[in-house]
Amino acid sequence: MNNSNITLDALTVIAAIHKKGSFAAAALALHRVPSAVTYTVRKLEQDLGVSLFDRSGHRAILTPAGAELQHQGERLLTAARALEAQVLRVSTGWEQTLHIAVDNVIPLARLIPHLEAFYEVQTGTGVQVLQEVYGGSWDALATNRADLVLGVPAMGPVGVGYNTRPLGQLDFVFAVAPGHPLAKAPEPLSDETILEYRAVSVADSSRSLSPRTAGLLSGQAVLTVPTIEAKITMQEAGLGVGYLPPHLAQPSITAGRLLVKEVESSREGGIMSMAWRSGKKGKALNWFLKRLEPEAVRARLLLPE
């Protein structure tokens, strides 16, 4: 059998007959004369050496071979339509997929209004959201895993051309569970006192760049977890202590699951930014850059609820 005998046009005809129930109805739906539809089917049956329809009744019923062709053909037609849409998107400047990396300190729910507004444009561009930790966002940009990153520390990797905009100041508080020994320790807590107890740290998600750590004392025991949500959970359980962004820790503090303690050597905060590679010109990227252009809009990514 020569696979070239099965064309997309022939599959379209088969699908129309199956859906409409007759050759005549399919011809009407396809805006063709009935003889053209009949010729397409007969030629395909002759080329394949199989019967595709049972024509003994009032309706055109697919044979088992015809049913298999119709089923697999639908997949090919769907793929062909998707390919056409992809080619059209590329020709008009819209990316097939926009990859957005978000640092763990930004709740993903903060992206919902922006994603909803983007999907209303109906560009056909898909969006993939990546969640990164600390230097992982810079890593995602440097290795082309992301087109846009939200929540990167001020200093980026050397040798990567990028543009940035500030999101806002990220500060930290030192928090412990009410039942933890440090909860009743006199303040401010010294480094020597804190060093006696396990810290909870979120693992840097960098793959190529050197991973970073912050807020840990040299020689301190560490429980490493994958997300800031897990860090908060572990600190609430009293399994360790550490620094947390106030906008994420506040619900636990308000509920009494965590206590804020004054420390002698507090962890300094810093400006968090958004970044994208220089020279990127896709329309989807530009849409998000325009959306996040107002300072107040960017700042809401890091503000408390």
Q: Separation of termini?
A: 64 Å
- The low-confidence parts are none
Structural class: alpha/beta
**Alpha carbon gyration radius:** 30 Å
Strand content: 15-25%
From the spread of the alpha carbons, the general shape counts as elongated
CATH architecture annotation of the largest domain: 3-Layer(aba) Sandwich
CATH superfamily of the largest domain: Periplasmic binding protein-like II
Overview of the molecule:
This protein has a 5-stranded mixed beta sheet with strand order 4-3-5-12-6. A 3-stranded antiparallel beta sheet has the order 10-7-11. Helix content is 39%, strand content 19%. It is elongated, with a radius of gyration of 30 Å. The chain is α/β, with parallel strands linked by helices and 305 residues long. α5 links the parallel β3 and β4. The longest helix is centred in the first third of the chain and has 29 residues, at 64-92. The chain is built from 11 helices and 12 strands. It has 3 domains: 3-92, Orthogonal Bundle (Arc Repressor Mutant, subunit A), CATH 1.10.10.10; 97-169 and 271-299, Periplasmic binding protein-like II (D-Maltodextrin-Binding Protein, domain 2, 3-Layer(aba) Sandwich), CATH 3.40.190.10; 172-267, 3-Layer(aba) Sandwich (D-Maltodextrin-Binding Protein, domain 2), CATH 3.40.190. The N and C termini lie far apart (64 Å). The relative contact order is 0.14.
